[in-house]
Design brief:
- By secondary structure, the chain is an alpha+beta fold.
- The chain has 2 domains: 169 residues, Jelly Rolls (Sandwich), CATH 2.60.120.10; 107 residues, Homeodomain-like (Arc Repressor Mutant, subunit A).
- 45% of the residues lie in helices and 20% in strands.
- The protein contains 12 helices and 7 strands.
- Strands 1, 2, 3, 4, 5, 6 and 7 form a 7-stranded mixed β-sheet that branches.
- The radius of gyration is 21 Å and the shape is globular.
């Protein structure tokens, strides 16, 4: 997928409702045939395991094929998706509150930063070798047996045990670069992301940095490390996708939509829209609607 196609794609924002009392979620998926997977983003660390079949996991500038016993990782608000390339396919995935990982400490391994694999760039994240893949699959069989014994709803302690054991396997041969973004920075950047999502109008990087309690220079360095693009580009992308949704959901004229989404005028919106989507708002509305009425 080209960089331009990636930016045009809409990513579903998931509200996983993770908190101190519910810091983890488990997804168990089975696919009978090859198919496209959803593209989404969320405030959680995600770790997934392919139990059988194969998946191609897709990030902005990286793709990774994951086969049985293999693992994929996603960071905070990181857009991601993929497709099932070999079916039948089965996977387990954990969504984890980063604060839970950041606070996990064991005297025997006090130096380990459990959030580091998620905060590293996708191409630098740990991979599972052939021997470790067998260990992961053995763990999966044990975990799935526990799920069945508890009627499909494993107790939190079992979830946490399985997660930390997979992370232990991943990290045993992985050398961190020491430059990964911290979970604390992720929590701070989350404030800027939520601020963008909460409004239609423009938001300056200075305003966002202040909301994150960061200096502007530090914010400008950290935001791209976590989100994969600059804050101005992220904020503009959000507004343009909001415009695209409104074009399809209403018959509002471009001038009205431009004003609602904080563009100077219809011409300003037109230029920005064409830069991202490669067509005019009118062309987008006519093509994507496909003759549907509102």
């Amino acid at each position: 997928m080209s960089g331009r196609d990636w930016e045009r794609r809409e990513f579903e924002r998931l509200d996983l409702k993770l908190n101190h009392d519910t810091p983890m979620l488990l997804w168990h998926h089975s696919f009978a045939r090859r198919r496209q997977l959803s593209f989404d983003m969320h405030y959680a660390c995600e770790i997934g395991i392919v139990c059988r079949g194969a998946m191609l996991r897709t990030y902005r500038d990286h793709e990774r094929m994951v086969r049985p016993g293999g693992v994929w990782l996603c960071g905070l608000w990181e857009p991601h998706g993929g497709r099932v390339t070999q079916a039948p396919c089965e996977s387990l995935a954990f969504a984890v509150l980063p604060e839970m990982l950041a606070l996990s400490r064991y005297p025997e391994a006090s130096q380990i930063n459990w959030t580091a694999p998620f905060m590293a760039p996708p191409e630098r994240r740990p991979r599972v070798g052939a021997r470790a893949a067998k260990e992961v699959l053995s763990l999966v069989r044990y975990f799935k047996r526990g799920i069945r014994e508890h009627g499909g709803s494993p107790p939190p302690l079992l979830l946490r045990f399985a997660l930390m054991e997979v992370l232990r396997i991943l990290l045993q041969d992985w050398q961190t670069s020491g430059t990964e973004t911290s979970a604390q920075a992720g929590r701070q950047i989350n404030r800027a992301v939520q601020l963008v999502f909460s409004r239609k109008g423009p938001l300056t990087a200075t305003e966002a940095a202040k909301a994150c309690e960061m200096s502007r220079s530090h914010f400008d360095r950290v935001f791209p490390n976590i989100m994969g693009l600059s804050f101005p580009a992220f904020a503009l992308r959000h507004r343009l996708h909001g415009v695209a949704e409104q074009l399809l959901a209403t018959r509002d004229p471009l001038k009205t939509i431009a004003g609602e989404w904080g563009f100077a005028d219809a011409s300003h919106l037109l230029r920005r829209f064409v830069e991202l989507f490669g067509c005019t708002p009118k062309e987008y509305r006519n093509t994507e609607r496909g003759g549907r009425t509102v």
